From TrEMBL:
Entry superkingdom: Bacteria
Membrane topology field: Multi-pass membrane protein
Residues annotated as transmembrane: 7-29, 41-59, 75-93, 113-132, 153-174
Pfam families, alphabetized: Cation_efflux, ZT_dimer
Upper taxonomic lineage: Bacteria, Pseudomonadati, Pseudomonadota, Alphaproteobacteria, Rhodobacterales
Domain Cation efflux protein cytoplasmic: 207-284
Chief place of localization: membrane
Protein name: Cation transporter
Family the entry assigns: Belongs to the cation diffusion facilitator (CDF) transporter (TC 2.A.4) family.
Localization annotation: Membrane
Record-annotated Cation efflux protein transmembrane domain positions: 11-202
Key words of the record: Membrane, Transmembrane, Transmembrane helix, Transport
Organism: Paracoccus fistulariae
Amino acid sequence: MSVTIRIAIGSIFVGLIVLALKTLAWWLTGSVALLSDAMESTVNVATAIAALIAIRVAAKPADHGHPYGHHKAEFFSAVLEGVMIIIAALLILRESYHGFMEPQLPDAPLPGLLINAAAGGLNALWCGLLLRQGRRLKSPALVADGRHLLADVITSGGVLLGLVLAIATGWAILDPLLAAIVALNILWSGWKLMVASLSGLMDEAVPESSLTAIRDTISDHATGAIEVHDLRTRHAGSVTFIDFHLVVDGQTTVEHAHQICDRIEAALKSRLPEAQITIHVEPEDMAKHSGVLVLD
């Protein structure tokens, strides 16, 4: 079992524990704001399950029907998570509206607040692990889950602070107001997540810093070639796809051209171990001499 899958399974168990704690906090207090926090945790559990399924699918090797692999499955998971976050936000807004109509101060505030704080602390620890490991493993599903939890941690902290103020001041209207603020924050988080995931599904190129590193690596290890042009990149999950045209002297043997390609591929893979590289070799009369990476 891979590290990514183990972390995804851990997210489900952590999500269930946090959901149980937040539901208990809401049950003790009757707070609409704490109910909104608990409702977001139901999304956490559902999306953690979706992330696990997507990661397992993405890990499948390429086959006849999917010759480029199944890496984009993680992007679908992240899009689904964004949709579910938005749905949760709309449900929370509905509850906050009813709270505005009949505002009430929470019951048994101290036990409920302490339990909710414990749930938020657990979420914060797991969020940090997801973001670190997701970036290290280049897993969009884990990173998306971590960003969602980060939004949850921030809003949970705001809810707790606001409820303390509501209890201290006696302003019952603060409870549904906090729920509405939480919903709007979740709505924005879900939208950003969907936009980021859709860029991967649309075969967006790697960031400019990564592209520069790829260009430099090719230039440093393409001794014997003339130029590189039509360099294209895209990413899908942990895999970076790189393809380009390599121009060599017309008298270069197939064996020598192949050696140059092997050297470039080895250098790129040392920087991007999961990279899939395609090189098209061309004779010198195909050189473009403009807008290309010219090699010594």
